[in-house]
Write a structure and sequence with these properties.
- This protein is mainly α.
- Helices cover 77% and strands 0% of the residues.
- The chain has 2 domains: 47 residues, Homeodomain-like (Arc Repressor Mutant, subunit A, Orthogonal Bundle); 149 residues, Tetracycline Repressor, domain 2, CATH 1.10.357.10.
- α2 packs across α5 and α8 crosses α9.
- The longest helix has 27 residues.
- The chain is elongated and about 60 Å long.
- The N and C termini lie far apart (54 Å).
Length: 210
């Protein structure tokens, strides 16, 4: 009965959240399932009902992080915005996720090499598809004259998303709200890529936001 009661208090979401905290604090090899069970105040059998191996938790964290990014990108595409506003929105959402889910994003990039090779390949395919979506939108905005055509779209997008991902390592709640960080990130990283026409279009997006 005690085991059943503790299982009822558990959920996959709660387990993954605690595992994420521990991996962020100690690294993948510095924590184990016993640590997760202790922090949740449950027995290992109760935890095993959901996850029996640490590798399963790492995969769940990766799937969680990528689902946030992919779902946000899908929602943006459904709005049928112009290329520049779509690009701005994708960068903004990426920065928002890196801020609101900083531990998940940090663990995803720092511990990916510990995934099973087959699972790692699946994760990378999803990420490649996501990156390509951003690259395609960048190229569209570039072709319309909003972005300087000297920049290689793939290189530019990798630099932009890399800057957004790094937010997960330094951001701490307090001085800056997640929305403020996302707004600043989207405008700062785009500013150096814009043509005069792009600057004007971006300023109109900012006016529409306020």
């Amino acid at each position: 009965k005690v085991l059943t009661a503790k299982r009822e208090r558990l959920s996959r979401e709660k387990i993954v959240r605690v595992a994420t905290e521990l991996m962020d604090e100690r690294g993948y090899h510095g924590m184990n399932l016993e640590d997760v069970a202790k922090r949740l105040d449950v027995t290992r059998p109760a935890l095993y009902y959901y996850y029996s191996r640490k590798e399963q938790l790492l995969l769940a964290i990766h799937n969680n992080a990528q689902s946030h990014l992919v779902e946000a990108a899908f929602e943006i595409s459904e709005k049928k915005l112009g290329p520049l506003e779509t690009l701005y929105s994708l960068i903004h959402s990426h920065a928002t996720i890196a801020t609101n889910h900083s531990q998940i994003v940090a663990v995803m990039f720092e511990e990916e090499h510990n995934l099973d090779p087959n699972e790692r390949e699946k994760i990378r395919k999803v990420r490649t598809g996501y990156n390509q979506r951003v690259i395609d939108v960048f190229q569209q905005a570039q072709e319309l004259g909003y972005l300087i055509d000297d920049f290689d779209p793939k290189l530019a997008v990798f630099l932009v998303l890399g800057a957004c991902n790094w937010i997960a390592r330094w951001y701490k709640p307090g001085k800056w709200k997640p929305e403020d960080v996302a707004n600043s990130a989207a405008h700062i990283v785009l500013r150096g890529l814009l043509t005069e026409e792009g600057v004007l279009a971006l300023s109109e997006i900012r006016i529409a936001e306020s």
